[in-house]
Amino acid sequence: MIYSLKLAVIAIFTSIVASMIVLLAPFDDREGRLAYRLGWLWSRLVLKTAGVRLKVHGRARLQPNRPYIFIANHQSHIDIPVMVQSLPGFQLRWIAKKTLAYVPFFGWALVASRHILIDRANRAAAMSSLSKAKKKLAAGISIVIFPEGTRGVGGRLGRFKRGAFLLAIKTKTPIVPVTISGSWRILGRKQWRLRSGEVEVFVHEPIAVERLGGKDSEELVQRVRDIIESRCRVPSEPEENPSGVSAAAALNVA
Question: What does the alpha-carbon distance between residue 95 and residue 106 come to, in Å, rounded to a whole number?
């Protein structure tokens, strides 16, 4: 019963805040800074309702008021609010798959907030999206990318795609590896119950890419993956898949 109640409250928060973002979009600036502040409120409400306690390490490594490309592992539906609350003071924009735009409320707010949606099946459209990402970085907005492209199972790390790393090299923007540890226990890929608990976030040392070229991208991918994996706590026990109400439907972050 408590799981259903939590999900219902989150669904109500999501619909209200998303509606506010969409309604205020015509009055927002071109980068969607007002919408992001509302999204920050949404992320805080989600974590509070879920009973998630954040423990963030290494945030002092970052320079305020400068853009980064944050590259993080992806364990859970809850990772987006976790990243937002872990990096206060930064305006973050996600590069996400275009199909999320069609998710009621969450997807509509995603578009109104000026996040970058990419059509993976259309190379020309994908290149246009990367151009938008470059403009965000030039405006002082940081980019967040989950290079696995989907959520891992049971906290395990998947294969990284190169797009985020090529973007960093082309724009000469420092990469910040981020390890999210424990969010799969709150709400994993094959889980249907929203649990409370602690999530640890490790903000690693920024990696300068000014001297790197496209030929260095494979080595950079492996380097960042190794850094992120170094703080991943892979469970020895199999991930549970209890029956219950779908949390994905409430969070709207498939």
Answer: 15
